[in-house]
Design goal:
It is built from 12 helices and 17 strands. With 449 residues, the protein is α+β, with helices and mostly antiparallel strands. It has 2 domains: 234 residues, Aminopeptidase (3-Layer(aba) Sandwich), CATH 3.40.630; 178 residues, Aminopeptidase (3-Layer(aba) Sandwich), CATH 3.40.630. The chain is globular, with a radius of gyration of 22 Å. It catalyses: N-terminal glycyl-[protein] + tetradecanoyl-CoA = N-tetradecanoylglycyl-[protein] + CoA + H(+).
Length: 449
């Protein structure tokens, strides 16, 4: 979600500081040394416990909103007598509050129709000027209109979950929050959920306490569809993460990354040596590696279902979901399959989505083109080789950096393929669903945009 400013109250800042992924963080050097990768990569249970303890000592004021919500509370961490499952049971939909929550008098709710080009442009403009920035204000996420169309209109989506706030007098869009429906398996139970994302409040309104009421409003609208759970991510510790992950970054255009301050030149490294270090082959290595097509949807669904079944929390995709989320869309999502030259069976699959960042205050560059690893399944090809091919096609398509979380089996290729660990951490949360024990990143099979 979005970074709070210094005028935010503690509660508002905790909510708005809910970065759903890590902005380029200028965090790793360009030496690619495995020792530096090891130093930054390990997120152990003790460090998570330490951060939770630090969050507890900040005082109740910091989390007074979240302590009123049906989420895992810090005080219950490690209590094995509390069962997994919903925290609050559903009520009849007729008992759900029928009217929207009250906004401050100058503002009004609006439903953002993402099929309408003018509205989509308004949302794009709000996000591109006010959404997540890194701590040094060097980069800001720049979701394209095409990406927003893709991210917010999956099968069965509800327009009423695309929620905006306008200034009554001018009708200017000044805040936004969304939910999209998903089926997420938690251990052995498939749960209908909302994936909540894109919480954004105009920078000049960060002290107006809009964020808590926006979260309550999207929750109300989700409940009206008889859905009682949600999944979301944040860059800060809130009550209470189900797991904590880290982004890793692989340089594809190291000179540009160093020039814009995303990366630093490693100790005893020259620019020419750094460029050589990150050089990739001109062509992919795997026989039968090709772009995914519509005819591949059933095979990719089978591969994904089999692969994701081993993780404690993962999406429950069907053919319609796979067609929407994974069929290639130019500059939005790229997907590739490996088709056996002998049997023509689709044996492997990899994908990444496109999320550029605006480069702020740089005379030479305005956009950082970043690929984000999405879902990857290797059965006949090694995951290492499959992801190396993904890096090669991303380089061919002029991406500057390839990012990947240390979820699923990703840790098996990160160091070998010269990814470096980022500074930021990404915390995953479930709303109104408790897990007794936190997961390790490699028990998580879910990637949220």
């Amino acid at each position: 979600m979005v970074v709070g400013d210094n005028n935010s109250s503690p509660d508002e800042e905790q909510i708005l500081n809910s970065d759903p992924k890590v902005v380029p963080d200028a965090s790793h050097g360009s030496s690619g040394s495995s020792s530096s990768a090891l130093a930054g990569a390990e997120i152990d249970i003790e460090s998570v416990a330490r951060r939770i303890q630090q969050a507890l000592t900040v005082g109740n004021k910091q989390h007074r909103f979240w302590e009123t919500q049906p989420v895992g509370q810090f005080k219950d961490a490690g209590d094995t007598s509390i069962p997994d499952g919903p925290i609050e049971q559903p009520t009849p939909v007729s008992a759900v509050k029928q009217e929207p929550y009250n906004l401050p008098g100058l503002y009004e709710w609006t439903t953002c129709d993402m099929d309408d080009d003018h509205t989509c442009t308004e949302v794009y403009t709000l996000l591109s000027n006010n959404y997540v920035e890194d701590d040094e204000n060097m980069f800001r996420f720049n979701y394209s209109k095409e990406f927003l169309h893709w991210a917010l209109r999956p099968p069965g989506y509800f327009k009423s979950w695309h929620i905006g706030v306008r200034v009554k007098a001018s009708k200017k869009l000044v805040a936004f929050i969304t939910g999209v429906p998903a089926r997420i398996r938690v251990r052995d139970e498939v749960v209908r959920m909302a994936e909540v994302n894109f919480l954004c409040v105009h920078k000049k309104l960060r002290s107006k306490r809009l964020a808590p009421v926006m979260i309550k409003e999207v929750t109300r609208r989700v409940h009206l569809e008889n859905i009682w759970q949600a999944a979301y991510t944040a860059g800060v510790v809130l009550p209470t993460p189900i797991t904590t992950c880290r982004y890793w970054h692989r340089s594809l255009n190291p000179k540009k990354l160093i020039d814009v301050g995303f990366s630093r030149l490693g100790a005893r490294m020259t620019m020419s040596r750094t460029i050589r270090l990150y050089k990739l082959p001109e062509a992919t290595m795997t026989p039968g590696f090709r772009k995914m097509e519509l005819r591949d949807v059933p095979a990719v669904t089978r591969l994904l279902k089999g692969y994701l079944s081993q993780f404690a929390v993962a999406p429950d995709f069907d053919d319609n979901d796979v067609e929407h989320w994974l069929l290639p869309v130019e500059d939005v999502v790229d997907s590739y399959v490996v088709e056996s030259p002998e049997t023509h069976e689709v044996t492997d699959f990899c994908s990444f989505y496109t999320l550029p960042s605006s480069i702020l205050n740089n005379q030479n560059y305005s956009v950082l083109k970043a690929a984000y690893s999405y879902y990857n399944v290797a059965t006949k090809t090694s995951l290492l080789q499959l992801m190396n091919d993904a890096l090669i096609v991303a380089k061919q398509k002029d991406y500057d950096v390839f990012n990947a979380l240390d979820v699923m089996h990703n840790e098996t290729f990160l160091k070998e393929l010269k990814f470096g660990p980022g500074d930021g951490q990404l915390h995953y949360y479930l709303y109104n669903y408790r897990l007794r024990n936190a997961l390790t990143p490699f028990e998580l099979g879910l990637v949220l945009l």
